[in-house]
Amino acid sequence: MATGDLLVVWHPVPASVAALRDAVLAGFSDAATSLPVRSRSAPDAGPDDVEAAAAAVLVTTENFGAVSGLVKDFLERIYPWFEEVPDRRPGLPYVVISKGGSDGTGAVRDVTRILTGLRWKEALPPLVIAGPLADDDVAAARDRAATLAIGVDTGVF
Length: 157
Ligand SMILES: Cc1cc2nc3c(=O)[nH]c(=O)nc-3n(C[C@H](O)[C@H](O)[C@H](O)COP(=O)(O)O)c2cc1C
Known about the structure:
With 157 residues, this protein is of the alpha/beta class. It has a single domain (5-153), classed as Flavodoxin domain (Rossmann fold). It is built from 5 helices and 7 strands. The chain has helices at residues 15-31, 47-51, 69-78, 105-118, 135-153, and strands at residues 5-10, 37-41, 53-63, 66-67, 93-100, 121-122, 127-130. Strand 1 (5-10), helix 1 (15-31) and strand 2 (37-41) form a beta-alpha-beta unit.
């Protein structure tokens, strides 16, 4: 049985990201695990949230072809720079959700590279949303979050 929180960290600006965050929270709820849920905007999230996590979903926008500055700031603050082998929750199962105006893949590239360095485990393929948010995107975010939560709770991830 897994212990720890189901963590979602989200870029705090556009309404579309808030809708995706809410979809993730709905997915966590769908999974009906006993794991506590922790929702943090990127500026409010930090090492303690990560240390307490059993799994994480990161929801970012793509800005200037890259991960949003605020999500990058979060990743910089949790990254243990001075350890030869970074050791901040190695193996933590995660999913990234990227919202772009027309693309979104650049943010996924950045997050994946950084989290590979942290040795987190990509539990499910990233969800990339290019253009206006559609109902299918919200449903896909909810589904990914539920699958992540069930998978971590049952030891699949
Ligand atoms: C400064 C800035 C840079 C951006 N750069 C990109 C970009 O490189 N690629 C992209 O797909 N969208 C880009 N966008 C669009 C955002 O990703 C978009 O505003 C966000 O996904 C929210 O989308 P929405 O307006 O549909 O809610 C940028 C937005 C801002 C504010």
